[in-house]
Amino acid sequence: MAREDLTPDSGPVRTCVGCRQRAAARELVRVTVGSVDGLAALLPDPARRLPGRGAHLHPTRRCYDLAVRRKAFTRALRLAGGASTALVAAHIDSLTDSPSTPGTAGVDVSPDQDWSNSS
Ligand SMILES: [Zn+2]
């Protein structure tokens, strides 16, 4: 009846469905399956509260792309058919916040204007 694979220091460990590396669960985003407008859709579950089977993924475009290409979500979540991944992609984009995100917003920023993004 192990609820988690607990280790004293690093907590539960999960495998990223994209790059297949093991990582602390808190470094991964949980993805579960639900429905949006009656269609199967993958839902990001950062609070890890949604019921049901979940897959874990590094919140990066690279791991997301790998997972999509390998149909890893389909396998990990036992999906019968396809499911929309748009919500997961949007969630990852919102987390990564990279200045050179291609094609997400209609902003045209000149390359020499990154002063506005100083943190
Ligand atoms: Zn990964």
Please describe what this structure looks like:
By secondary structure, the chain is an alpha+beta fold. The protein has 3 helices and 5 strands; from the N terminus they run E-E-E-E-E-H-H-H. It has helices at 61-69, 72-76, 86-96, and strands spanning 13-15, 22-24, 29-36, 39-44, 54-57. The strands form 2 sheets. A 3-stranded antiparallel beta sheet has the order 4-3-5. The longest helix is centred in the C-terminal third of the chain and has 11 residues, at 86-96. Residues 16, 18-19, 21, 58, 63 line the site of zinc ion (ZN).
Shape: globular
What's the total count of β strands?
5
Separation of termini? 46 Å
Helix-strand makeup class:
alpha+beta
Side-by-side strand order of the widest sheet: 4-3-5
How many helices? The count is 3
Q: Spell out which ligands are present.
A: zinc ion
- Average of pLDDT: 83
